[in-house]
Design a protein that fits this description.
The protein contains three helices and five strands, in the order E-H-E-E-E-E-H-H. The protein is of the alpha+beta class. Helix 2 packs antiparallel against helix 3. The structure holds zinc ion.
């Protein structure tokens, strides 16, 4: 059994401000459209594959984009703490997307490795079924977590009571 190649790239975008309100509106201004809503972070992935002779190669390319804030020396400690809590929750949510993509790549690798002989049609059928299934799971993951909101990945101008 071979393992798929997994390439995870981290990217950031800058968020500016020195108050909670400024940070919240800076996030809102640059938040990416993602599925049904706008999201402060986004993970995209593509899985490519090929079967040459009896060797199947699968590669997952994953890009995780999260916000980065460089606080001034005068930023209040409370805001620093709120920011790190938010970013940690956001990262945990995005990690869920990464895990789904890696799982899909492994499932595809396993399925292609198990093909008794090179059969391009069967390989294509397996790939599209495994990748469709993964996209479906990803949609459910975002629906279940409200794009991470239920995992605490929310940064609002007002202090939440939770
Ligand atoms: Zn998400």
């Amino acid at each position: 059994m071979s393992t798929p190649l997994v390439d995870v790239r981290e990217e950031t975008f800058s968020v500016l401000g020195s108050t909670r309100e400024q940070l919240a509106s800076s996030i809102a201004a640059v938040a990416r459209p993602h599925g049904a809503g706008r999201h402060a972070a986004v993970t995209t992935w593509t899985i490519s594959w090929e079967v040459v002779g009896r060797v199947a190669r699968v590669c997952a390319e994953i890009v995780v984009v999260t916000p980065r804030w460089r606080p001034s020396r005068f930023a209040p400690v409370e805001l620093l703490e709120e920011w790190s809590r938010f970013v940690a929750a956001l990262r945990a949510h995005e990690q869920g997307h990464v895990d789904l993509a890696v799982e899909a790549a492994k499932a595809l690798q396993g399925a292609l490795d198990a093909l008794p002989r090179a059969d391009a049609d069967e390989a294509r059928r397996l790939a599209s079924s495994i990748l469709d299934h993964a996209r479906g799971r990803e949609l459910r993951y975002d629906a279940d977590t409200l794009h991470g909101a239920r995992q605490g990945a929310v940064f609002t101008a007002r202090r939440s009571s939770a």
